[in-house]
Structures are given as structure tokens and as C-alpha cells.
Amino acid sequence: FINGETNKHPDYITSQYHSLKANTGSFMVRKGKWKYIQYGHYLSAFKNYKPQLFDIKNDPYEMKNVANENQDIVNKMMKVLNDLLRETGGGDYNYLDQKCENEGKEWFKRWQNEINNGNSNEWKEYVSAVYTMM
Fold it and tell me: How many Cβ atoms sit within 10 Å of the Cβ of residue 71?
């Protein structure tokens, strides 16, 4: 706002999710009435996961995937996602999914080594806290 400049925000919101309770990474773009979800394909078991598209205005509970009927919107949303990931140094969603999967494996190996070497008190407390919340 200084010197007459305006703060420009994109007209979309993005999110990504990688978790213990997700079998693959998911990436979301919300723009206008549309919500687009793309799944990571790094692990071959999930190579056939197709993107989903929801019309949030008419389907706020996301019950009907309308991707097949709106391929042009799917393509535009995929471009928004991939352009953003490239601009921020993340590659594309499959690269980011691979990176997160590999980091998760490294954390698991670290945990496993600590348990096997008897240095597990910190990990036991952490795991206990996590599973108590579930």
C-alpha cells in the first residue's frame, strides 16, 4: 500500500496433504466455485487415481465428482497447480509426492533404528501421544 502499490493475491487457494491416514499425497486447488483434487502417483498402486472436481456452490458436501463433464476446468486447475509448484521450486505434484514419500520412509527408518537400539523413550512418548489422539 506504500507508494500506491496494492497487495495482489491470487484468485485461488491451494493445499496439499500427506499423512499417516492417507495412502498417497493429495493436492487441492480451490478457485471460484470449483475445488480440484489431484492425487500423487509416485507409488504405482495409485497410478490410476484420477483427479476429482467438485462444484462447491451446488455441491457443498462434495458428493458428485464432475471432472469427466468439465475436462476444460480440470485442465485449467491442473495448470494452476503445476505452475505454482514450479514457481515455488517444487517441480510438479508427482515430484512433490515422491519427495514426501521418501522423507516419510527416512523418518520411519530413523524411528526403527532408535527402537532397535534401545533409544526409544522419546519415540515411545511421541507414538503414544499420536495414537491416544486417534
Answer: 11
pTM of the model as a whole: 0.67
Residue carrying the nine cell digits 485461488? 12
The residue among 125, 132, 100 whose CA lies nearest residue 111 is 125
Region of 29 (left: φ > 0; alpha: ψ -120 to 50; beta: rest) is beta
| pLDDT per residue rounded down to tens, the chain (134 residues) | 456 666 677 888 887 777 666 677 788 999 999 999 988 766 677 778 899 999 999 999 999 999 999 999 999 999 998 888 787 776 776 677 677 777 777 777 777 777 777 766 666 666 665 555 54
Is residue 40 packed enough to be buried (19+ CB in 10 Å), middle (13-18) or exposed (0-12)? buried
